[in-house]
Amino acid sequence: MPELPEASRRLLSSVPGLETEIHFFPGGTKTADDAAAAIGCPVSAIVKSLVFVVFDQQTQEPVVALVPGDLRLDTDKLASSAGVEGARRASLDEVRDATGYAAGGTPPFGHARSLRVFADPLLRRNDPVWAAGGTPATVFPISLTDLDLLANPVWAPIT
After folding, report:
1. Could you give the CA distance from residue 109 to residue 132 in angstroms, rounded to a whole number?
2. Would you say 28 and 139 are in contact if contact means Cβ atoms under 8 Å apart?
3. How far apart are CA 124 and CA 45, in angstroms?
4. In this structure, are residues 119 and 21 in contact, taking their beta carbons and an 8 Å threshold?
5. Does some domain include residue 1?
6. Coil, strand, or helix at residue 117?
7. Of the candidates 144, 102, 136, the residue with the CA atom closest to the CA atom of residue 32
8. CA–CA distances in Å: residue 84 to residues 9, 42, 52, 53, 89
9. Angstrom distance (rounded) from CA 112 to CA 131
10. pLDDT tens by residue, 14-35
């Protein structure tokens, strides 16, 4: 097996004691469908870690939204859960600046900055779930208990 990418090693080192194995798929796992096919799990067991900017007239804040792979984020619900007026998808530069990872490979925790995280309760349909491991070609399984502990999300209906 090839050596893990630097971003995946950085993720593992950001969470000492995390008991998981990062899986490398050279063909990529950029979409939830790609990841589910490579892993052999339901698309609903894939955690999409989406970076959005929530805003009102005075503030803009990057946040992470954890969404099941078979569902789409509802920006109005995310904004409401965050207590602001609106939400928009973060630019590629904003994703990397806020999280330290590229879009498509953003894990649910271990970010460069402290970010609020929101998770849709429908993620709980599967346990474990699979999340991006720092690159679009790496994923790892994680129990819902560990996801809750490490990402510390606000559980809210955001799909």
Report:
1. 10
2. no
3. 9
4. no
5. no
6. strand
7. 136
8. 35, 33, 13, 10, 15
9. 17
10. 887 777 889 988 877 778 998 8
Amino acid at 78: L
| Domain membership of residue 57 as a residue range | 6-155
Q: How many domains does the chain have?
A: 1
Res. 36: pLDDT tops 70: yes
Distance of CA 124 to the CA centre of its chain: 15
Q: Is 130 within the bounds of a domain? A: yes
- 30 within some domain: yes
Q: Give the helix ranges, DSSP H, for 15-153.
A: 32-39, 75-82, 92-99, 144-151
CA-closest candidate to residue 13, choices 23, 25, 24, 22? 22
The predicted-structure confidence for 49-99, as pLDDT tens digits, reads as follows: 999 999 999 999 999 999 999 999 999 999 999 999 999 999 999 999 999
114 residue type, one letter: S
Q: Is residue 111 part of a domain?
A: yes
Q: What CATH number is attached to the domain comprising 50?
A: 3.90.960.10
Question: Do the beta carbons of residue 13 and residue 39 sit within 8 Å?
Answer: no
Which single residue is written with the structure tokens 């474990």? 128
